[in-house]
């Protein structure tokens, strides 16, 4: 059947910077498909991701690998064979948790496959040893049964024919056993070499794990430092927001001052225009001053005439007062005469009544 996908998701792929071993380098410009594959022929598991025509992840999972969650949506694992660290950024925490669970399942399956392979190697080794031990007595038995050529010639009977047939079968079995033994020895040697390679890879992986643990400690320290720096930057951002608010207020104030300045400039322009007509106004002012002086002179003359007229009026009023006094005296005298005349009339009327 070959390799078949057993789980697929989407994530942003990153690789550790091979130079600094600290910074992440994006391996994809956008979220790409990341899949677990199972190879039934080799009984192995791989994580594969392809961006267009470029393979950006080809990591065979071993029992020594560990998937680490470094944040709520980011995880990573080290691949000693590829000599790199892969990082995946997911869109949600659920996707990260599912991928981590699948990684653990595949890791356990790879461990079971390795243990089964080791058991098979041990079984083949024991079987090869047993076959090698059986080879010598079988050969001796065949020689004793067959005998020499002279005995064959002198004893040709049905039993000898049966023995000869069995001898042929035994020879074929021995030859087949020898062939199988050589084959098992070759496979055993191959398995031993593979086992040695696996041991070397395991030791290298262990060394890489220690190295990655140290790097993880350094990354955690850098993460703490970055968090502190982020807190400082947030405080600076808050101050910047306050400064921005102050700047906006200052901008409003500046606009107001600019408006006032424009008004003042307009007033200054008006004053300049008025200053241009100042000589004309000065001439008019001098003319008005001359007229005013003339008017003052005339006013002085009129005041003098008014004073003369006031004196005449005073004299006339005084005369009028005198005339009023005399007229009052005359009126008093007239009233007296009228009273006397009235009394005289009354006397005459009494005399007429008496007569």
UniProtKB/TrEMBL annotation:
* Lineage top rank: taxon: Eukaryota
Gene Ontology CC? cytoplasm; postsynaptic density
Chain spans, region Disordered:
112-154
Specify the WH1 domain's residue ranges: 1-110
Q: Which Pfam families match?
A: WH1
Q: Which residues form a coiled coil?
A: 167-319
> What molecular function does GO assign, one term?
G protein-coupled glutamate receptor binding
What are the protein's UniProt keywords?
A: Coiled coil, Cytoplasm, Synapse
Looking up InterPro entries in the UniProt record yields: Homer, Homer_EVH1, PH-like_dom_sf, WH1/EVH1_dom
Q: Has the keyword Transmembrane helix been applied to this entry?
A: no
What is the name attached to this protein's record?
A: Homer 2
Q: Which organism is it from?
A: Liparis tanakae (Tanaka's snailfish)
Q: Which gene carries the instructions for this protein?
A: Homer2
